[in-house]
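Cross-posted from the bioinformatics board.
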Amino acid sequence: MSARMVPLALRVNGAPVEAMVEPRQHLADFLREQRALTGTHLGCEHGVCGACTVLLDEVPVRGCITLAALCDGHAVCSIEGLAEDAIMQRLRAAFSAEHALQCGYCTPGMLITARDIVLRLPQADEARIRLELAGNLCRCTGYAGIVRAIARVLAEAPAIARAPAPPTPPAPLSPPLPPPVLRLDGPPITLRVPLAAPRAAVWAALQDPALIAACVPGASLTEATPERIAGNLRLALGPIEARFAGSASLAYDAARWSGRIRGEGQDGGSGSRLAAEAVFGVEADGAEASVVTLAITYALRGALAQFGKRRLIDLLAAEIGAEIGRNLEARLRGAAPETTARLGAGGLALRLLRRWLRGLFKAG
Amino acid sequence: MKPAAFDLARPASLAEACALLATSGDNARAIAGGQSLGPMLNLRLATPALLVPLAPLAELAGAQETATAITLGASVTHAAIADGLVPDLPPGGILAGIAAHIAYRAVRNRGTIGGSLCHADPAADWPCTLSALGAVALTSDATGKQRDIPLDDFLLGAYRTALRPGEILYAVRIPKPGAGARFGYHKSCRKPGEFAHAMAAVLDDPGRGIRRIAIGATGGRLLRAATADAALAALASCGLDLVAQQMQRAALRQALQRAGLA
């Protein structure tokens, strides 16, 4: 991937700065790595902890989810730039007096949020201060000292509290430990995929991993033996895109027309891990039709799990199962499957919508 | 925790941004405040080859008010709405009340109403509340063709919208409730500012003969209903587990009470 450096001209702590930055560099990294302003701390690096809070055009923002390149033409102020600020001087003294810090990691972001509270909410009581601090995590103090320190500055210095300049009006981690074994949890997702093909033909097809893989949208095989398959699976949903590389073991029980696939994979981009087990069976539905049954249990860990809520995954799995069924049916008829380049592409959204509506009407 | 490399476009106009998105296909993503996309980029859940910044575009800024509706530019921030810098809905500043409890102040200063709608996180505040308020997404594409899409048609499900390639949401139009209308919204979060585990918004507008209930944070598409009974029935059959259903019922009850319906 070729990313060009882009020019950036902005004010940092009052002084004009010109630099070249990678578009992907966030503001906190720009301040720390390029300007040596290491007072801005990085905690979670996805907008939750508040350690990286800095001022952009006078108002607090998350340094870790603000791209430096998008600050072109704007004014940034880090904790270093507030050394002489009248409110910050009072806050520093109050933080010391009230024991509002211990390890100090959250303190720069905490101070910038505290200053915003003093300026914007001169009438804030303890409850309001606590509410405003919800976006700055402190794991040492229990907040009692921080809240007292801010209340102290609000009480002793109402004169300096003023409404800040309104924001530009709208005029026009890699894991340090080896990952644990994923335990499959939750109730299984059960699917019944009806196929217009006889039981024996479906069963025979299920013995061919290459054929199955060709029916799974977004899947490609790198290795296939009767007991084991390896390959890749590409999945897209809105802005999220994952490429799982992994392998699975296969076991068949011909006497029961059933089998089991157990696999595990990792998305290199996000480091997310997925483990799943599918128990499948083929039932006859008359002489010319059959039903493939699936019971899937899975475990998802890592970044993707933060967004892949159970309900969402259940819906996706059902949709993907049905699509595999349609493709398998087409294969059994001798036609090429209508595979899409990746899961989640094409008409999936519309089908999910229809499925949802059907669910609603069934209830009514 | 650093994004994968991408290029940054510098569109000077809405039309230019549409054209960039249209020609770059799946490899490009629009970014406004970046408060939802930013974490996904850092976590490498999203790895676009090109980002197209929308926040600086004049066409997405600003706000308008008419006798029957207000229209907010897509790049209006949650903080601007919470601070009353843009027109709001009667009674009592409905939008400011919603905006004030989105995430945290530092996020509200960057995050935009349009970005939230287009990201379409099932647990986000604007999709659920604006759907109950009957809002309409105003979009434009590279050819200048504009569409007015009711949010119910715009929001297709988790992270999915009706936006076509190269199409950009430039504003959202929200009809003004009539005299005597009441609006109730409740969300259940483990901690203020976190994503909600349950949420419900209710508009009771007898003057216009409208009663709308929207339930969000279901993991999938919003649930919509016209009566509390229908909302409860939809909840019972939408596949949520019993704990989630109970949380949703509690949120619905709160929202109904605030709208004067329970």
